[in-house]
Amino acid sequence: MLRTHTRRLHVSARLLRGQNLTEKIVQQHAVDLPHGKTVHTGDYVSIRPAHCMSHDNSWPVALKFMGLGATKVHNPRQIVNALDHDIQNKSEKNLTKYRNIENFAKKHGIDFYPAGRGIGHQIMVEEGYAFPLNLTVASDSHSNTYGGIGALGTPVVRTDAAAIWATGQTWWQIPPVARVELKGKLPENIAGKDIIVALCGLFNKDEVLNHAIEFTGEAIESLPVDYRLTIANMTTEWGALSGLFPVDKTLLDFYKQRLNVVGPNHPRINADTIKQLEQRASTEAADSDARYAKTLTIDLSTLTHYVSGPNSVKVSNTVNDLARDNVKINKAYLVSCTNARLSDLRAAANVVCPTGDITKLNKVNPDVEFYIAAASSEIEKNAKDAGIWQQLLAAGCRPLPSGCGPCIGLGAGLLEAGEVGISATNRNFKGRMGSKDALAYLGSPAVVAASAILGRIGAPEEVFGQKIPFSAGGVKTTCEDAAATSEAPAPAAAKSASAGAVEILEGFPEEISGELVLCDADNVNTDGIYPGKYTYQDDVPKETMAQVCMENYDSEFGQKAHAGDIVISGFNFGTGSSREQAATSLLAKGINLVVAGSFSNTFSRNSINNALLTLEIPTLIEKLRVRYADAPKELTKRTGWFLKWDVPNAKVIVTEGSLDGPVILEQQVSELGKNLQEIIVKGGLEGWVKSKL
């Protein structure tokens, strides 16, 4: 596995200081550590996760696995395959892929869950693969979900998954850890979705970008596990790599109740594992002297119903405000791994059928299509047994099978051009749930149900003829950065080159240059870079990938950008899903270097693994924004500025007009070490692993 050594300062202090919960869990799953080594933020480690899940992308992972020359899965008990994304697609091509995944799983003894059983993340929780205090990954960006039950869940990309299948391990750098303190008592009828939507909108300046999050505070004990799963799930949209809740009495009670469902002989959730968990919970909590990069607080007692959008999770408003704006909707959705558990379906049913009498319903507005799908077949059965499912159908909801469906822009009920939708899913990126010319909002199950009844975005209280909850003073929050110390690792973009030149491997260019093409936006997401509707088509030719690259961001990108250009964008570039095509489509377009103010960590990982080079230069994007502040707005703009990256000297020079023109900027950048050069020369991590095998 990739091994990179970080500089260590004040080693004795690092060894003596305590660990946060994230570091403790990584410590338990790290392999080949030096004797006595205590891991902390900034360390690169080889990790052996307890489990690794893949879904419809299992076949592409299998092809990578076989392409590496591997013939045997290292540990079949570590791997889970679950079909959940494109399950409405009954074409022979898709069914063949599904059969290939099932046959591969059967051949190698891998646990397999067919289409209709449920969404992979929900299965991982229900079946105990993701379990408190373990490290579980998935080749999907919403692996953060597992933090809701006290597991460290984080996404890996397809190439990492193939490496785990072959070797049992992959690499990870322990990120900075932010503590999010939840204070106060959550008002009645305000849900976990309201909490995370508010957090995404109120802390929308990349405060937690590429951080691990640990939730603490007095309010947690009263938060149901379903709320925790929703919050952890959407820490992905907030920009974090994980969102970890503690193991407490509420969680232990959840598992004791779960015993009644799974029975006494379940291999992962049983009396013994729960007893062991109770014993571990007290000792495997964060140490009192653990270090955190920052602390954010929110007073839950000041919350009301929150909705994000349109087309951004970084914009949130109270339902009170949106109700006054009379935002009419065409479609509503209660689906996905975020909010389709039993309590979510019950919250919606309580709006359409508040008395429990199915003859006295608040019907879905005739101008609205309201789609529902349980997160798993178990949840759908429980909803039917409780009469919840029947109430929703009687009110006019349209059922879909247990799977991702419209959340990823697949199957029935997608948003069409000019339409407006509100959803209890996790993402409302432009074009993700259908047409790029539609508008999408996110809200809690109760708000989505109320909006479907009202025909506009509104609160359940309006349906009941009550006053919408309103916080006159606004939501109370704080954000404090930890004091900088010499022990803290420097951000990659801020590291200066060493006195000597960087050694360049044979086959790696000493200079990379091209004209800068400006995509002037922050939070350019993977749906914008490579549309979701192509993601699970595994045989899209390179030429087509090049044509559709960035089409959801800007339909004119294909005409304005050319092979050999260097794309430059704003902050948090590549946020969103873990699809590798976000990197490979840019490569197909002939873009070999992307510069940004900052990158999503998952996109950076995909870039390294697929041989796409990236540079973080926040100063440069700021200069370009000043330069074009008064120019007509263009999503994609050829700048006439040229960048030259002197790799041996770790220096970037930006000039105007040509590579020999007047110098605009000269700046040191992070060194590109031999280990990363080797991956690029080999064409990516897949080629690197193959060469080692």
From TrEMBL:
PANTHER family listed in its UniProt record: HOMOACONITASE, MITOCHONDRIAL, HOMOACONITASE, MITOCHONDRIAL-RELATED
Source organism of the structure: Maudiozyma humilis
Primary subcellular site in the record, as a coarse category: mitochondrion
Domain Aconitase/3-isopropylmalate dehydratase large subunit alpha/beta/alpha: 23-455
Family matches, as NCBIfam families: h_aconitase
A Pfam family recorded for this sequence: Aconitase_C
Class of this enzyme: lyase
Example of a GO MF term: metal ion binding
Known cofactor(s): [4Fe-4S] cluster
Lineage: Eukaryota, Fungi, Dikarya, Ascomycota, Saccharomycotina
Protein name per its UniProtKB record: Homoaconitase, mitochondrial
Catalytic activity field: (2R,3S)-homoisocitrate = cis-homoaconitate + H2O
Gene Ontology biological process terms, A to Z: lysine biosynthetic process via aminoadipic acid
